Amino acid sequence: MKLVQCTYQARSRLGLLTDGDKAVKLLSEETLPTSTVQLLELGTPAHVRELLRAAESSAPTVPLAEVQLRAPVTRPDKVLCICMNYVDLCAEQNQPVPTEPVVFNKFPSCIVGPADDIVLPSATSQLDCEVELAVVMGQRCRAVSREQAADYIFGYTVAHDVSARDWQLHRNGGQWLLGKAMDTFCPLGPSLVTADALEPHALALACRVNGATRQNSTTRQLVFDCHQVVAHISQCLTLLPGDVILTGTPPGVGVFMKPPQFLQRGDVVEGEIEGIGTIRNRVV
Asked: Which of 12, 203, 239, 278 has the highest Cβ tally under 10 A?
């Protein structure tokens, strides 16, 4: 199933993509919440999937063109990210493969939708983008093993890890938080694919800028797979329903091109992951 948050006739709704992602089944406002986080708080991922299947059978279908897709998750408790988590990225940068996941964070306020604008802040001249597979947690999770982690994941979505490289790498020795967490720096979408419908560790992913491919790899290149990442983080803090984890990016980002290429106003950035879909965000 592909869960979406959308706006239909000026009302926030949950829905399921159908008809080859060309239509949306609008889920009942009377029996289900209208936000993903509230939905996930109703029970385990398996229980929530059962609720969705039951609601789907009676849900009216509308063309996708009649709704506005929003980020499939908004206002999570946490947005966490993993650095240097692709083998081919480490090779590109001539860096050793990490021995454990390297974690940083964004803020929930960074999240925007799959077609929303990315705002180029006046504070940066080195705007860059990274396509990433994002994990969305389905239930409270603390101190789990890799083997247990899959049971706590609700699903997966596409993310752009937008970055201000001058802040991240140079300002005052490197301001990772500000460089990664400015407004609109985390587009998500177009849908949240349930974990039972996707094998996350064999997916093609790509990033294009104005139609030109910059990143093109596969999640087979992950150093630490999604289950390892969840297990590792859960040893240190409690993950909650709706928490988002960006799992890292492959090579090809603009800052490491020769010469470096940064995003400008008017550029259109596309992030695509096999089995999930494509997000398209214009820089303004």
From this structure: 239
